[in-house]
Amino acid sequence: MTRRELEEAPSTAALFARAAATARGRGGALPDTRLARTGVVADPADVAAYARVCGFGLTGALPVTHPHVLTFPLQVALMADRAFPLALPGLVHVRNRIDALRPIGLGEALDLEVWAERFARHRSGATVDLCASVSAAGVEVWRGRSTYLARGATAPEGAPDADVEVGGGALPDGAVHWRVPADAGRRYAGVSGDVNPIHLSGLTAKAFGFKRAIAHGMWLEARALAALEGRLPEALTADVAFRKPVFLPSTVTLATAPADGGWDLALRNAVAGTEHLRGTVRPL
Amino acid sequence: MAPQTRQAAIVGGNRIPFARSNGAYASASNQDMLTATLDGLVARFGLQGQLLGEVVAGAVLKHARDFNLTRESVLGSRLAATTPAYDVQQACGTGLEAAILVANKIALGQIESGIAGGADTTSDAPLAIHDEMRRVLITLSNARTVQQRLKALAGVRPGMFVPEAPRNAEPRTGLAMGDHAAITAKEWGIGRHEQDELAVASHRNLAAAYDRGFFDDLVTPYLGLARDQNLRPDTSVEKLAALTPVFGKGEGATMTAGNSTPLTDGASAVLLASDEWAAAHDLPVLAHLVDAQTAAVDHVHAGEGLLMAPAHAVPVLLARNGLTLQDFDFYEIHEAFASTVLATLKAWEDPSFCREKLGLDAPLGPIDRSKLNVNGSSLAAGHPFAATGGRIVATLAKLLHEAGRGRRGLISICAAGGQGVVAILES
C-alpha cells in the first residue's frame, strides 16, 4: 500500500477534465493507494453554504453528510489517476453508507484518508467502493463508503457480487414534498465540488446518455437527513441506495418511518411514484 | 372552573454568546440560533424527546418566511415534535413578555412546563423589495393582458431596485431609537461621564461574571464564540471619553457607540415549570416569577420619552405587591443606552415626575447602585432584541438562587413603540 499526503484539496473540475481525457484504455486491478490530508478545518462559510443548499440548520457541528464533501476531492483524485481501472465520467453513484461515530464540531482539525476497495461484479457492469475515514486527534469520527457502478465494465476474475441493496421496511406515502429546481445540480456542485457534468445542465447530461440533468445522490441523501433534523441519533449509520435518477426539475416526496431507534426513508417521484432513494438510519 | 394560581418556577436558562452584527453569526438565521439555543437547553436539562407544555419565543427583525419561527425551531430541535409553540413580538420586551406568558399559563395550571425565548439577527436581516416595486409586481401578477402588463412595468423606476433594510427607527417619529434616547438624556440632564461609567461597569461586571464561571451553565458556545463578542473587559472611562457622540446634536451630545448598545445577533431561552414538574424531573428551582406589568407612553404626541415606559410600569407593579423600590436585592435594568438606565433612575427620584406623571404622593426614591446589573447587561453583552429578556431572566434567577431563599429581584426592560415590560422574581 502506498499512502500519499496532499497539501490541499485538489481541484475537482481539473480532475474531471483529466479523467475525461484519459478515460479510454483503462483496466486492471484497483490501485492500493491511499490519499490523505491532515489537519483539515472546514471553512465556516463553506459549511454554512453547504448547510443552506442541503437544508441543514447551523448547529455548531458539521452536518452529518458534510465530511463527504471534504473527502470527495481526494476520492476524485484517486479515480482520475491513470492507475484507476474505471473511467470516471459515467460512473453512477448507487449506494452510500455513512458511519457518524460522533458529532464533529465546527473548527475541529480533521485527518482524512480515502481509498478504493471491493471491485465487484454487477448485473450491468462492475462496482467499486470509494471509502473515506475521518479522524480527529487520532480517533476515527466518521466513515464513508460510496459504491459506484461502471456500466459495461468487467470486474476482475473471482470478484465478489456487488452489494447495492439496503434494508428497511414498508413505508407510507411521503408527507414531505420538495420541488427540486432545475438548478439544483449546479447549486450542489457549487458547495460540494462535485462538478460531474451529468448534474450541471441538460446538454452536458445528454452527452452521458441522460435525457436531462439529474440531481446529485449525495444532495438527496443530505436533504433527507436534514429533514430529520433534531430526530437523528447522535451517532448513526446511514445507508442509502440510489435508485432511479431524479431528473431536473422534479417534485419528489420523502417518506419516513421510525425503525429500531432510527428511521427508514424513501424518496419517490411525486407524480409517477418511482423510487429514487431508499435508506435506513440506525443508531451506532 | 377558576383554578387557584401558583407561581411559576424558573428552572434555568441557556443562550448562545451574543455576536456583533456581521460578526461570528453572519451566516446564521434566527431559526438556526433559536434551534441551537433550544437544543442547548434540552441538553442541559435532559429534555430530549420530551413533550413540554409550550414554547413561546419571537424575533423582532423577522423574515416573512419565519411566520412560525418558534414552532419551526421546535420541530428542528430535540424536543418532542408534539410540543406546541407560538411566536410573540413586543420589540425589545419580546423575551420577557414570552416568559410572562409561559409563567401565566403555568400559574393558571394550563401547562406544567414551558420554554420562553427569543432570537434576533441584524446580520441576516429581512431585506424587502422597495415598496413601490412591490406594488408594481402585485399589479403585474394581477394583469390579464399584455397592455396591462406593459403598463404595470412602465411604472418601474431605477430607484425601486434598491431593497429596503429594516431601520432601527420609530415609524411615527422617523427618529432612530438613539435619537429619542438622546432627547430624554438631555431632558433629564444625564451627563457623558456618568453614562461612560455605567458602560464601563457593565463590561467589568460581565467579564468578572464570565471569569468566575457564572455563565458556565447559562451560555453554550456557538459557531466559534464562547463569550459575547462585544465584551471589552479592559475598557475604561478614559477610552470611552475619546469617542465622538453619535446620537443627539451639537455641544450637549453625550451618547456614543461606547455608551449605547450595538446591533447584535443572538438567542436565549428560559425553562419555566411548576414546582411539581421541576421536582418530578429532579430539576432545581432557581426562583419564581412573582408578578409582571407592562406600560406604554405616548412618545409621539404627549412628550414622554420613548424609552420611559418602565418608569411608569414599575410603580404599578410595586403597589400591587405591597413593595417599595428599595425592597430588592438585585435590579436588572436593560441597558438599551446608558442614558436610559440613568434617566429612569433619576425619574424615580424626582418628586414632580413621580407626582405629575406617575400620580404618586412621594418619589420612589433612589436604589442602591451596587445592586444594579451586577453581572453586566446589554451595553457589554449586546442586545439581540428578542433575546435580551431571556438573558436577563436566567441571569437574575441564578443570582437570586445563589444569594439564598427569599431574595427578590426587579427586571425593567424598555421597548420600541414607547413600551415597557417589568417583572419581579423571588428565590
Topology at a glance:
The complex is a heterodimer of chains A (284) and B (427).
Chain A lengths: L1 E4 L6 H10 L11 E8 L3 H11 L11 H15 L11 E9 L9 E13 L2 E12 L2 E13 L24 E5 L3 H9 L9 H5 L10 H11 L8 E7 L7 E10 L2 E8 L5 E9 L1
Parallel strand pairs in A: 1-2
Antiparallel strand pairs in A: 2-4, 3-6, 3-8, 4-5, 5-6, 7-9, 8-11, 9-10, 10-11
Helix pairs in contact in A: 1-3, 2-4
Chain B lengths: L7 E8 L3 E2 L9 H16 L8 E4 L11 H8 L8 E3 L6 H14 L5 E8 L10 H12 L3 H9 L22 H11 L4 H20 L25 H5 L22 E10 L1 H6 L6 E10 L12 H12 L9 E4 L4 H12 L1 H6 L21 H4 L6 H16 L4 E8 L3 E8 L1
Parallel strand pairs in B: 3-4, 3-5, 8-9
Antiparallel strand pairs in B: 1-6, 1-7, 2-6, 5-6, 7-10, 9-10
What top-tier CATH class of the largest domain in chain B fits best? Alpha Beta
Could you tell me the strand content of chain B as a percent range? 15-25%
CA(first)-CA(last) distance of chain A: 29 Å
- Give the count of helical stretches of chain B: 14
- Taken as a percent bin, the fraction of beta residues of chain A is 25-35%
Key features of this structure:
A: 284 residues, alpha+beta, Thiol Ester Dehydrase, Chain A, eleven-stranded mixed β-sheet, 11 strands, B: 427 residues, alpha/beta, Peroxisomal Thiolase, Chain A, domain 1, 35% helix, MaoC-like_dom (chain A), fatty acid synthase activity (chain A), Acyl dehydratase (chain A), HotDog_dom_sf (chain A)
Describe the structure.
The complex is a heterodimer of chains A (284) and B (427). Chain A contains 6 helices and 11 strands. The longest helix of chain A is centred in the N-terminal third of the chain and has 15 residues, at 66-80. Chain A has a single domain (2-155, 165-283), classed as Thiol Ester Dehydrase, Chain A (Roll). In chain A, α2 (44-54) runs antiparallel to α4 (184-192). Helix content of chain A is 21%, strand content 35%. In chain A, strands 1-2-4-5-6-3-8-11-10-9-7 form an 11-stranded mixed beta sheet, with helices on one face. In chain A, 47% of the residues are buried. Chain A has 284 residues and is α+β, with helices and mostly antiparallel strands. Chain B is an alpha/beta fold and 427 residues long. Chain B has 3 domains: 8-126 and 264-280, Peroxisomal Thiolase, Chain A, domain 1 (3-Layer(aba) Sandwich), CATH 3.40.47.10; 131-161; 177-214 and 241-259 and 291-419, Peroxisomal Thiolase, Chain A, domain 1. Chain B has helices spanning 30-45, 69-76, 94-107, 131-142, 146-154, 177-187, 192-211, 237-241, 275-280, 309-320, 338-349, 351-356, 378-381, 388-403, and strands at residues 8-15, 19-20, 54-57, 85-87, 113-120, 264-273, 287-296, 330-333, 408-415, 419-426. In chain B, strands 1, 2, 3, 4, 5, 6, 7, 8, 9 and 10 form a 10-stranded mixed beta sheet that branches. The longest helix of chain B has 20 residues, at 192-211. Chain B starts with 7 loop residues before the first strand and ends with a strand. Chains A and B meet through α2 of A and α1 of B. Chain B: Pfam families: Thiolase_C, Thiolase_N. Chain B: The active site is at 92 (acyl-thioester intermediate), 383 (proton acceptor), 414 (proton acceptor). Chain B: This is Acetyl-CoA C-acetyltransferase. Chain B: Residues 284-426 form the Thiolase C-terminal domain. Chain B: Keywords: Acyltransferase, Transferase.
